[in-house]
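Protein modeling request. Please complete all fields; requests missing the sequence field cannot be processed.
Requester role: graduate student
Desired output: 3D structure, token encoding
Chains: 1
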Amino acid sequence: MSDSLTLEGVHADIAQYHILQGVNLSVPEGSVTVLLGRNGVGKTTTLRTVMGLWQAHRGRILLGGEDITRLPTPRIARAGVGFVPEDMGIFSDLTVAENLTLAAVSGPIDSARLDWLLDAFPPLRTFWGMAAGNLSGGQKQMLSVGRAVIEERRLYLIDEPSKGLAPAIVTTLARALKQLKAQGASILLVEQNFSLARALGDHAVVMDDGRTIWAGPMATLAADAALQERLMGLSMEAHG
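Delivered output (240 residues):
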């Protein structure tokens, strides 16, 4: 199996802070890799650096073997990377329909893909003509995910999609992401909800202090509470 995404010794700074200090990871094609670690270790910065929003000053980022380290964000998006940022990144003054239309960078939205998305997230159908700023927090998150997946892409970067959401919304979100996974999607997911991470993840990568410190099957990490405690200072069972 080839890798959809590979990071090789990636370093990145934000202002005077050296945030990423040697990130190595891979996302095999057609699988979900979950990026784990305590708050502030660099998980969100890793996703933003892959997306070109922060610039790596050392190391390489490969998309399907192609070096994208120095590419600007629009070119990375057009190369087939969808991004769900932690702050959702929707256009509040535009309607649901307009948000999704703008996100379809390759042209008109595929009708079958749209039907799947609206079936997965029924509120987007209900509020199709409503300004996105008037949606609830959970509905905004559905729209944020919808913008990233409205087209079939080579890779999806998803940053803490369940953060702050009610359990019923998390269930809807989890079902949609499982469907996306079943379609053969390649996903790099940052997620603090360990029950969701376990349910979706094929592989796990753990970060600490700007570095990757462990990588392996999600099942291995999920089954070993002592390993979880050693790597992250917490147990998945206690935070599931």
